[in-house]
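Question (not urgent): is this output format expected?
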Amino acid sequence: MLRKRSRGERGAVAVEAALVTPVLFLLVLGIIEMSLFMRDVISTTSSVRVGGRVASVSAGAGPGVCEASAEPPPCSPANTPALAQAAADAIQRAGAAMPKDQIEYILVYDANTAGYPLPEGNTSMTCSTSCVKYTWDDGLDKFRYGGGTWVSTSINACVNDAGRDTVGVAMVATHPWLTGLFGDGVTINERAVMNFEPLPNDQCLPGEHL
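Got this back:
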């Protein structure tokens, strides 16, 4: 025979529910927030790998095809390598799950031994020499050249040469926290560094290719 709960028991259940429900609600929100954050981290990692693979096979692709101007065009000028624009375009075509407007910028650069942009000893995403920057343009729906130079003929793509260059592709993006539980947002930094695929021996040294 079922026994009716007393008023005191019902009150205790209500108190327990009032204490436990907010905790469960916060737990669910936290799971959602971390899931979205991991989505953006994985998306960023995948994107720079895609860009890195394309750049690494394009050492001999030559210079960019656009002339620099006061209002930079979406493509890269001649004082940058075509491989940089190719890497940015590959990231765009990859269709990352992360919204493009969360991407602050992309760097395509000649990497130092630590995997960061030159000069040697640099350990930050500072684009100074042999480095090209891209930002997302909503109006063009494309990554726009945002500055930097890297002369394509300076690339060393000789497989057995101690001075062989490596190419890095980095992305800096902002992940916004939807609920505000962890603040306004967090910056995501990911990079991929790869050896250039070697050019033919008679073309691989700086100055011997486009």
